[in-house]
Amino acid sequence: MSYKTILVHIDDSRRSGARVDFAVDLALKHNAHLIGLYMVCRNELRPIIKSDESLSLAVHEAQARARLARANDHFLSATRLAAATSEWRAPVGPSVLTATLHARHADLIVLGQADPADPAAFIAEHFADDVVMRCGRPAILLPYAGRVDRFGETVLIAWDGSRAAARAVADALPVLRHARSVQIVTVERHREEDDEAGKNTGHTLAAYLEHHKVRAGVLSMPPASGASTGATLLDVLADTDSDLLVLGAYGHTWLHERFLGGVTRSLLESMTAPVLMSH
C-alpha cells in the first residue's frame, strides 16, 4: 500500500495553516497528490467568528468570503512553493457528511484535534471522530497544542489484537517503513476479563511487520492501577519520545466511547503527538 492521494481539512482556525504545511510535507514524502478540503461550521445558530451584530448580512458574507480566500491563498502558496501537485475544494453541505464523502476518495486524511479555546476550530460536534468513524479511511489527527517538529521517526503502535488495531497497522505501513524506531505496546488484561488474553501479544505482530521490512520492539505494560488505558498509552508515548501513535479507533461501540469514555475518547481529548487512527 502507498498513499497516492492525501486530503487535509482546512478551516479558519489558528492551527489550520500548520495543518496544511504538515500535509504538504507528508504529500512530498510519499509523492502524493494533495487535496485541500475547506470546511467550516455550517450551523448558522453558532457563528464561528464573533463580530459586530449591527453589521448587515452582506457584510458577514463578505467576511466569510475573505476568510475562504485567505485559506485558499495559503494552501496554493504552500503547495506551489513545494512544487506539490494539489487541488482545492470548498464544497457546501452538512459538514460531517460532506467531509466524509470527500475523504472516501483519498488514501489518507489529515484532521486537527478540536481546540476548545478557538471558536473557529468548531466545525460540528465531534467532527473529527465522526469523520474517522464513517469515512473508511485512515486519518492522522494533529494536536492543537505545540508544534509538530518530528513525524513518523519514532512510532508507537497500540496493539490489542482487535480488528481496528490490525487495520490501523496495515494502513500505517507506508509510514512505518520510513521510521527509524517502531515499538509495539500492549496493555495486559486480566485473564478473567478476556479469554483471549495472552494470545494477542505484540510478538506475532512484530513477526508480521518483519515481513514488511519493519523491525519493531515489543513493550508489555501491566494492567493499569488507577489509570485508564488511554492515560497509560500517553505515558508510554512520552517515555519513549515517540512522535506518532498508531491506534485502532473505537474498540468499543461508538456510543460507548462517546458517552462513557474509552481509549479513543481519552486520546482525542488529551493527545500530545500525532495519532494515526483507523476504524
TrEMBL record:
It comes from the Bacteria. Residues 3-138, 154-277 form the UspA domain. Gene3D superfamilies: 3.40.50.12370. Belongs to the universal stress protein A family. This is Universal stress protein UspA. It comes from Caballeronia sordidicola.
